[in-house]
Specification:
The chain has 185 residues and is an alpha/beta fold. The chain has one domain: 3-Layer(aba) Sandwich (Aminopeptidase). 30% of the residues lie in helices and 15% in strands. Strand 1 and strand 2 form a beta hairpin. The longest helix has 14 residues.
């Protein structure tokens, strides 16, 4: 398990828009927005985990507000290039009342990462499809794993529901347990 964590601090060593960073994968990334730092460290963690060629690579992150805007606080966005894995995750979540919603890794948005000075940019050139764009960015760092699942979740209950009080929520943990148990026994 890898836990990439980041703190937004400003000092003389902070990166700035226009900087180019080399990722663990070797890709150069142009910084278009310093507030998209989470996807940079998550990409490095995915590259590190991917190097071990796991049967299943899963990441969970409160990566974008766009997922919450599109699906609300109770329904995390799920991404994978494997449609069967996405469906298995959805079914596992439904079975234990820990829902998630399959979203497309729409290849038509790949050009949103264009950069004239690096391999890719860390943010889209436009304002639309933010959660999909972030997932497509991460996908570039997973090349060896047999299966990959990305969950963009809110992890917070804004209103009380049975068994889920207001506050922090371990979204998708029950769903992932069901998925892993079904897949690996």
């Amino acid at each position: 398990m890898l836990l990439p964590c980041v703190e937004n601090s400003v000092d003389a060593l902070s990166y700035r828009p226009g900087d180019v960073l080399r990722s663990r994968k070797g890709l150069t990334v142009e910084i278009g927005n310093t507030d998209a730092e989470g996807r940079l460290i998550l990409a490095d963690a995915l590259a590190e985990a991917d190097a071990e060629t796991p049967e299943l690579l899963i990441d969970l992150a409160t990566l974008t507000g766009a997922a919450r805007t599109a699906l609300g606080p109770e329904l995390p966005a799920a991404y994978s290039p494997d449609a069967a894995l996405l469906e298995s995750a959805r079914v596992a979540g439904e079975a234990c009342c820990d829902p998630l919603w399959p979203m497309p890794l729409w290849a038509g948005y790949d050009d949103e990462f264009s950069s004239r000075i690096a391999d890719i940019g860390n943010v889209a050139t436009g304002a639309f499809a933010g959660s999909i764009i972030a997932a497509l960015f991460l996908k570039r760092f997973v090349t060896q794993s047999r299966a990959w699942l990305h969950l963009d979740l809110y992890a917070w209950n804004p209103k009380e529901r049975p068994g889920r009080p207001v506050g922090a929520e371990a979204q998708c943990v029950r769903a992932l347990y069901g998925l892993i148990r079904h897949r690996f026994g």
